[in-house]
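Fig. S4 source data, part A: sequence.
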Amino acid sequence: METPQTENELCRIAAPVRLLSVPVALRSERSVTLKEKPILACEFAESFGRWLGDLAAPTVTGGLGADLAAVRTGPGFECRNRNRAASGKLSAHATGLAIDIAGFDLADGTRLGIKPGDNASHTSVVAALRRAACGWFTTILGPGSDPSHADHLHVDIQKHGSSDRYRICE
């Protein structure tokens, strides 16, 4: 797609794509829909799509016995600072290298929220997805990490410091 226009010239997204759905590994007839159709940098869309199709969908099905149908997200690319602060460093969202996950919709109509709740099975599956994300992304923030991430998971592939191996998994 065309590069989104912003007033801040530092907000740039390399090779933008609009992610509509991703295939589920080993189940070619199934796909996971992204209802908000987020705009992401192609390199991040590839990582995120593989995490959804190869890990998240099978984990949800195995843990809950229902297929993952859709993921509720933010817009992906968004020209803003970290934690929506008035000043400071740009967020990974400003380069299309991040997405916020608000929840998961299952094929049976069930909704999985990100915040721990009363359903132990749901909480366990979301916790497993969050832990496993540390192997796929460089930053994972969610409930308990800080007030800005109390109700969603933030995942990104932004490089921290001089190493591409450093992870922030909170």
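Fig. S4 source data, part B ends here. The CA atoms of residues 161 and 167 lie 10 Å apart.
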